[in-house]
Specification:
This protein is α/β, with parallel strands linked by helices. It has eight helices and ten strands. It has one domain: 3-Layer(aba) Sandwich (Rossmann fold), CATH 3.40.50.
């Protein structure tokens, strides 16, 4: 049976806007299970990214707890949070933020070196992961300005995976990609999930959400819907889309 990898207790996040407090996340209790591909959806401004950042230690909650394993991370110092993210989390964003002066391979290896991993085995792992995403030996020597958007996002995914994170967080990873590149990137996420990787992804796109095994719907700072799906296969894509569409319609998406 899957175990909880992250959970929250009475999680709250507020922002001050012109002296007025905006309560984005309100007393939220939730669990993310190990091995799940969890997708967070909701209307614009519902707090999807805010929740993702709180779960990953990229931002601090205003109140409540974020518990990873047996560790409560909300009270960590900035240095402790940085170490937590380094040792437990991988991040894929809408914008990839590759280092312009480094090759594809070096961009990935830099992430490993930050985690004090510098060995021939790590270099081989980086090459293997990059090739699994469809990049060849010549691509590994390229610089970011020589890559397409889809290629750059593949590099970003490998960079996020190089340190074997317990959780892979993704915030709108296909938001700036065309349909062909989006499909390639989503195929990588599906393959990674098959290996047992835990994934938490924010998206507003139903094609992206179809890759998940669990969809959480966020509204007014709380989770109002929790929908389970079997692991993604191409064969059930039509039925899967109809099932998810029915859930989202019920949620008012």
């Amino acid at each position: 049976m899957a175990s909880s990898i992250i959970r929250t207790e009475k999680l709250c996040k507020s922002f001050s806007n012109g002296g007025v407090q905006q309560h984005v996340i309100k007393n939220l209790d939730m669990e993310i299970m190990s091995g799940d591909f969890t997708v967070i959806m909701g209307s614009s401004g519902s707090g999807k990214s805010t929740l993702l950042y709180a779960l990953s230690g990229m931002d601090r909650p205003s109140m409540g707890k974020v518990i990873c394993g047996d560790k409560e991370i909300q009270d960590y110092s900035n240095d402790e949070l940085a170490l937590f993210r380094r040792d437990n989390c991988g991040f894929v964003f809408q914008s990839v933020y590759l280092l312009d002066n480094q090759t594809v391979l070096d961009n990935v290896l830099t992430a490993a070196f930050v985690n004090r991993k510098n060995s021939p085995e790590i270099v081989e792992r980086a090459k293997e992961l990059l090739k699994k995403t469809g990049l060849n030996d010549e691509d590994l020597k390229k610089y970011p300005n020589q890559l397409s958007g889809g290629e750059a996002q593949r590099v970003g995914i490998v960079r996020a995976l190089i340190n074997d994170p317990k959780i892979l967080f993704a915030d709108e990873p296909t938001g700036q990609l065309n349909s062909a590149s989006s499909r390639d990137v989503l195929d990588i996420f599906s393959e990674v999930h098959k290996t047992g990787q835990s994934i938490v992804m924010v998206t507003h796109d139903i094609k992206t959400a179809l890759r998940g095994t669990r969809v959480l719907y966020l509204r007014d700072g709380g989770i109002v819907g929790d929908h389970r799906m079997p692991p993604f296969t191409e064969d059930d894509s039509r039925e899967r889309r109809a099932d998810l569409s029915d859930f989202l319609e019920e949620m008012g998406w």
